Queue: 2 jobs
Job 1
Amino acid sequence: MIADRYGYEPQSRQCIKEMAELTQAINKYWRKRNFGGSDRQIAEAEDAVLDEMADTQIMLWQLKYLLGFGNGPLEKRINEKLDRQVNRIKGAEG
Ligand SMILES: [Mg+2]
């Protein structure tokens, strides 16, 4: 409903914005963890990551819908990538 209301162009821009916010939140969380953030600052930064992950996931679902990527093709692509990475790890260990 939301995706249909706004359409691809605005939602693709919004997706880019949310991904940038997620990048920033992950970086801030990393800085707080690695450069002496207080427990409270770390907890807040972690919560910001959760928030931006939710925003980004919502936008990815909308783009998936607006671009007509069904569950089949996307899940197939995801599984191929996961299989390849697992095989790389197994190869490196073997
Ligand atoms: Mg956001």
Job 2
Amino acid sequence: MRPLHGQNLLFAWERGSSPAHLPALHRALSMLEVACPECSRTALAALGISARDRLLLQMREASFGTRLDCRFDCPQCGAALEFTASTEALQPPCANQSDTEFGAYRLSLREATSEDLCVAAREADGGEALRVLTERCVHVENEQGQLEPPSTWPFDLRQHAGECLETLHASAAIVLQFDCPACRRHDAQTFDAAAFVWREVVHHAQRLLDDVHALAWAYGWSEAAVLRMHQRRRQAYLDRAGL
Ligand SMILES: [Zn+2]
């Protein structure tokens, strides 16, 4: 894995910022594509969402360290709740991929991947999107051990399959519980690793662009020359130029 420093940081920011359908999924995959050149986008899109998020946190650790500064706004009074956590503490657990039975049927479930979510999101209706996701992630066998195609699933089996998939995804989520010190409201929020890491990539990329701009202005150096420098050396020149 390559850390997102210098040119790679700007590549990740640039690719993730390109207009695309489903920006959140696109950004997560774009960052990983830069950090993991040995993996194709297709292979990255085939990872379960919790595996993708573990990889994103690994990339974050290699790029910006292990300490995460988190902030939430209380949904009731708007007070800012700030805390620090480690990348390890916020690693999503592996989803509990277990088989289950429903009457005479046997269900095998797997966690949704970026590709599954992309296909499901083509449906305009939320209910239809869930149907597509369930049909892709749940395989059903009848009592003869034959695959039961989704078109033949009875209503209650379909409903049960959807609920099991939801439970599977909940088992792989990181839920942060907190009490607001201002209004005492107790709340819980799911930690969105992809959104968190993307905000950091944007922040660091903007700072790097500022440095390139300032040094190019002061010394006439090219972007490539500034990006090749270690951050400490860049800062030393910025200090000398009084920037
Ligand atoms: Zn509050």
